[in-house]
């Protein structure tokens, strides 16, 4: 117990979806705000048999030939699964095609998501994604279990803990690791974020969070497989950042177990995705909503790590104050946490209401922060495709503030004069709690003019909080404006309703509803950071933006667009990878790191200009010219030397450091496309015509048939990155994501940028001959840079070289 409580005191946050590279708690309380490190767990088994095949040759050699182009893509997927894969599995193994499968409107590719079932229970990490067009399987990813299945409701007596070997390796590496520079202790004392050279602390926090709690006191285990309460309590004791709560769970274990209220979820008729055993649990310590529980299987590597075996687990969905976990815990004693992912995601269109478009006094789209531009009056971006009724209208039936209220109007829509609409609910959250409906937000009145001053003055430290809060109207307005702009931009590139975007009402276009973004400004739960929780489609995403006490006056992260874009991009990548209803595909290792990297890359691309520049992340908020990453994003290898091999460094165990490398690689790739195709000053596509069609304008290539193809390099790379997310497999590696982007270009343009893309990836070590061995549950291993390109590109020269 002593070891358990000691480890519980560590509240590091390195594996979850948190913007800041490091989050150091100030040494004092400010105005009642208890700043804390956000603890986040993220790990799980590796899948040595998992594959992602992205070429027709790989697929056809498995014995599958194209079907009739007119055949239903879901039927093609069924034949593919049964003819090619199911013959390799046992009779007790079957599958279901998930309800979140969909067809991309632009490319015509149908993304089919399949979940494996064994003995009637889902295999939590038995996933397939199959990409189909015109009867042809373009690519697929597969992590189906293909070994010997156990008898129903039995479990192996023991299993190889997937973390044990990795933790020993991590510990040995940590003990031998020496930081390149000393930590600036004065910065920490002054409440500032430490310099990016302090990687030894990141490694230490990661070691404690993921390796400090590998077993529990024997008397806290249960031999009754049907009683999941001990397993859930042990997870809560591990996951809570509050040492007092962890200690209370251990000391009063029986009390907490008996206090839980368990209800079985029953349905009148079976649903497409219904599981045979499913419960909700109330009164769970440190959970803010009822926990969902269901019995499932998970794959655990066997000795040697070359194969896997199925282990029976209780799969929990746990919403906490700062986290939203999906975790698998052994169903039988000893209860061990096997995997953790921190998510911390029809009716006819009614007549469009008559509204006065709002105006906002904000840092306009493209101005990253107050250091690079001034505020101006901007109009509501009334995009009739992305936001058909604007940003301030929401149906009464989908408005959380009217839930349970008897209406006295027959109107379908409610028009608001606050920062409350169909895409986002923006408000202050000074108390740092989960409540949001009745939190303060500005009211612009009948004119919808959100015009507020912003002129913070330097004060003494004790008065800095009051000074920042004076400008809460400006802060919330900016957050509402930026979030809606991101919603509309990503929508136009394919993050729409069926793909799992965030909207309360989906206008009869499909997808799950009631999941607009809850955006909290000046959140009181911390400083110097931001975070985003992404549950599956149909549940609200939650974004928390913090103040930064790195300067006087305090700097407000809501005003740095790059931070907001980074956070919202977590929702984008999580919902697009593995399907809208699966939020467990970017939890740890390289996949979790890319979740961070996509956010950095998209934020950097959005703020970039036609004249090339290097860019830092978080430079204004952190009051540091070089930003909060190890390096600024740059083509110059003396400025940013990151390569694929960089991931082997001990300081690159955390997802943020991994993400830096991925973002840098994408930045290099994007410049190859810009060099070839030029640069668009506006990333927004043209407004649609009255009949709903989108004109080519100067944005798309003129074409009467086929998908819309952005004509400039910077808009094209955004499209390829989003399309690649849809194509790639669940839990992708760098290689999988690279191949998916290259295939996205094949689908969109016929592969005309094949060599440019390979040249960009190989420039930073992700060429054809790159490799990795001995991966760990956090993405560790030994990597080899590869600089070769396919034979078809051996004579490739850049456009610049060709013009000389």
From TrEMBL:
Active-site positions on this chain: 567
Family: Belongs to the peptidase M36 family.
PANTHER family: EXTRACELLULAR METALLOPROTEINASE MEP
Chain segments annotated as coiled-coil in the UniProt record: none
Enzyme's top EC category: hydrolase
Signal peptide span: 1-20
Assigned GO CC terms: extracellular space
Main location: secreted
EC number: 3.4.24.-
Comment on bound cofactor: Binds 1 zinc ion per subunit.
Localization: Secreted
GO BP: any one term: proteolysis
Database matches in SUPFAM superfamilies: Metalloproteases ('zincins'), catalytic domain
Entry-linked InterPro entries: FTP_domain, Fungal_virulence_M36, Peptidase_M36, Peptidase_M4/M1_CTD_sf
Protein name: Extracellular metalloproteinase
Positions with a binding annotation for Zn(2+): 346, 566, 570, 596
FTP domain: residues covered: 100-144
CDD domains membership: M36 (cd09596)
């Amino acid at each position: 117990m002593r070891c358990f409580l000691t480890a519980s005191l560590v509240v590091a946050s390195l594996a979850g979806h948190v913007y800041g590279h490091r989050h150091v708690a100030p040494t004092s309380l400010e105005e009642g705000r208890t700043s804390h490190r956000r603890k986040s767990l993220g790990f799980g088994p590796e899948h040595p048999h998992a594959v992602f095949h992205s070429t027709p040759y790989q697929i056809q050699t498995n014995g599958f030939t194209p079907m009739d182009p007119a055949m239903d893509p879901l039927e093609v997927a069924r034949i593919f699964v049964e003819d090619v894969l199911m013959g390799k599995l046992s009779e007790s193994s079957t599958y279901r095609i998930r309800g979140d499968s969909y067809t991309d409107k632009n490319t015509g590719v149908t993304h089919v998501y399949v979940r494996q079932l064994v003995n009637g229970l889902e295999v939590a990490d038995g996933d397939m994604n199959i990409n189909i067009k015109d009867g042809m399987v373009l690519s697929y990813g597969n992590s189906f279990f293909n070994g010997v299945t156990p008898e129903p409701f039995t479990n192996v007596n023991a299993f190889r803990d997937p973390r044990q070997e990795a933790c020993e390796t991590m510990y040995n590496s940590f003990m031998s690791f020496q930081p390149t520079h000393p930590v600036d202790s004065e910065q920490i004392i002054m409440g500032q974020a430490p310099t990016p050279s302090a990687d030894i602390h990141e490694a230490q926090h990661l070691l404690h969070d993921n390796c400090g709690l590998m077993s529990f006191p024997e008397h806290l285990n249960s031999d009754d497989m049907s009683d999941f309460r001990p397993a859930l309590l042990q997870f809560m004791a591990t996951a809570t950042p509050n040492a007092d709560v962890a200690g209370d769970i251990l000391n009063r274990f029986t009390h907490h177990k008996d206090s839980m209220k368990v209800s079985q979820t029953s349905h009148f008729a079976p649903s497409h995705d219904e599981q045979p055993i499913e419960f909700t649990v109330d009164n769970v310590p440190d959970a803010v909503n009822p926990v969902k529980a269901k019995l499932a299987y998970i794959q655990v590597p066997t000795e040697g790590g070359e194969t896997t075996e199925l282990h029976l687990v209780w799969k929990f969905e746990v919403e906490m104050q700062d986290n939203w976990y999906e975790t698998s815990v052994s169903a039988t004693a000893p209860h061990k946490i096997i995997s953790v992912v921190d998510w911390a995601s029809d009716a006819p269109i009614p007549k469009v209401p008559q509204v006065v478009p709002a105006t906002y006094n904000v840092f306009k789209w493209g101005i990253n922060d107050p250091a690079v531009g001034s505020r101006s009056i901007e109009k509501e971006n009334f995009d009739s495709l992305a936001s058909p009724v604007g940003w301030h209208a929401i149906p009464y039936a989908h408005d959380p503030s009217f839930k349970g209220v008897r209406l006295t109007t027959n109107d379908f829509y409610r028009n608001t004069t606050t920062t409350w609409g169909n895409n986002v609910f923006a408000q202050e959250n000074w108390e740092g709690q989960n409540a949001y409906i009745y939190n303060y937000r500005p009211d612009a009145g009948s004119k919808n003019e959100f015009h507020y001053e912003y002129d913070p003055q330097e004060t003494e430290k004790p008065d800095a909080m009051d000074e920042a809060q004076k400008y809460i109207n400006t802060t919330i307005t900016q957050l509402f404006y930026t979030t809606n702009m991101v919603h509309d931009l990503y929508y136009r590139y394919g993050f729409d309703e069926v793909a799992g975007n965030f909207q309360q009402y989906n206008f009869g276009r499909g997808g799950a509803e009631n999941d607009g973004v809850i955006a909290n400004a000046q959140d009181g739960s911390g400083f110097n950071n931001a975070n985003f929780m992404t549950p599956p489609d149909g549940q609200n995403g939650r974004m928390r933006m913090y103040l930064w006490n790195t300067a006087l006056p305090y700097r407000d992260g809501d005003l740095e667009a790059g931070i907001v874009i980074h956070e919202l991009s977590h929702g984008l990548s999580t919902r697009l990878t593995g399907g809208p209803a699966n939020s467990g595909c970017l939890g740890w290792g390289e996949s979790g790191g890319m979740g961070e990297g996509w956010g950095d890359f998209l934020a950097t691309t959005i703020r970039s200009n036609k004249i090339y520049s290097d860019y830092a992340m978080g430079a204004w908020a952190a009051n540091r010219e070089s930003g909060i990453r190890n390096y600024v994003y740059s083509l110059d290898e003396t400025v940013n030397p990151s390569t694929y091999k960089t991931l082997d460094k001990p300081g690159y165990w955390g997802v943020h450091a991994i993400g830096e490398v991925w973002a840098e690689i994408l930045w290099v790739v994007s410049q190859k496309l810009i060099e070839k195709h030029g640069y668009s000053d506006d990333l927004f596509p043209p407004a649609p015509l009255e009949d709903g069609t989108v004109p080519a304008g100067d944005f798309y290539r003129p074409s009467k048939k086929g998908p819309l193809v952005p004509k400039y390099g910077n808009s094209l790379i955004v499209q390829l990155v989003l399309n690649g997310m849809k194509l790639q497999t669940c839990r992708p590696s760098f290689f999988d994501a690279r191949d998916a982007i290259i295939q996205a270009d094949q689908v969109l343009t016929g592969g005309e940028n094949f060599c440019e893309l390979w040249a960009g990836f190989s420039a930073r070590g992700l060429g054809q001959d790159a490799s990795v061995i001995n991966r760990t549950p956090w993405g560790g291993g030994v990597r080899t840079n590869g600089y070769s390109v396919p034979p078809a590109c051996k004579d490739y020269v850049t456009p610049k070289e060709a013009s000389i």
